[in-house]
Amino acid sequence: MKLLASLLMAAALAAPALSASAADAVPKAPAKPDLVQGEAKYAQICVACHAADGNSAIAANPKLAQQHPEYLVKQLQEFKSGKRADPVMQGMAAILTDEDMRNVAWWLASKPAKEGFAKDKNLVSLGERIYRGGLPDRAIAACAGCHSPNGAGIPAQYPRLAGQHADYTVKQLNDFRVAKRGNSTQMVDVAAKLNDREIQAVSDYIAGLR
């Protein structure tokens, strides 16, 4: 009986320790993004190129306001690792921690995007056709399938495109076309089938989406 009592006592004492170890083994959920810190870090590092509210006025630099935060975090992580090549952005991302990236991304997502507009009326119909229906005869998928008919994208999967600067979109599609930007196999495959006129047309159409 004394042996049984000793075993029961040992088991009782060990249980809390085991429970604590099990609790320690469960990964902690990321802290809720701090928008105040995100705004401060953005003002320190990003504002010169992307404007105070994330609506860049420079056509070569993307509008980031209202972008899906998970997508922004992914891009920053890939700039930092070099998976997405850009010497300027790699340098900026290198000084950001994962927490910084989350804070900045969620702050940008909270800012409303300013509307853009298409400039080339001669290309609008071609751009609309590619964006909404693709070019089936060349196995080019419709952009709307992933980025939604109004360019809002799909959270955590596909970025918002509506109102994006046409010049920026042209450059990205050209970089995808030659695999200079290789962090999306799907986009590399699509862009490889587009010619210069088609890239310009769909980029201009996207600029006017809202």
What is the structure about, briefly put?
The chain is mainly alpha-helical and 210 residues long.
Radius of gyration: 24 Å
Number of strands: 0
Helical proportion? Answer: 55-70%
CATH topology of the largest domain: Cytochrome Bc1 Complex, Chain D, domain 2
Provide the domain count: 2
Strand content is under 5%
Average of per-residue pLDDT values = 90
Secondary-structure element order, N to C: HHHHHHHHHHH
Output the number of helix runs: 11
| CATH C-level class of the largest domain | Mainly Alpha
Describe the global form: globular
User: Any low-confidence stretches, pLDDT <50, length ≥5?
Assistant: 7-11
CATH architecture of the largest domain: Orthogonal Bundle
Distance between the termini: 79 Å
SS class? mainly alpha
Q: Could you give me the name of the CATH homologous superfamily of the largest domain?
A: Cytochrome c-like domain
Largest sheet: number of strands, sense, barrel closure: none
Question: What does this protein structure show overall?
Answer:
The protein is mainly α and 210 residues long. The protein folds into two domains: 35-109, Cytochrome c-like domain (Cytochrome Bc1 Complex, Chain D, domain 2, Orthogonal Bundle), CATH 1.10.760.10; 124-207, Cytochrome Bc1 Complex, Chain D, domain 2 (Orthogonal Bundle), CATH 1.10.760.10. Helix content is 56%, strand content 0%. The chain is built from eleven helices and no strands. It has helices at residues 2-25, 35-45, 47-50, 69-81, 87-94, 98-109, 124-133, 144-147, 166-177, 185-191, 196-207. Helix 4 (69-81) packs across helix 5 (87-94), helix 4 (69-81) runs antiparallel to helix 6 and helix 7 packs across helix 11. The longest helix has 24 residues, at 2-25. The radius of gyration is 24 Å and the shape is globular. The model is unreliable at 7-11 (pLDDT under 50).
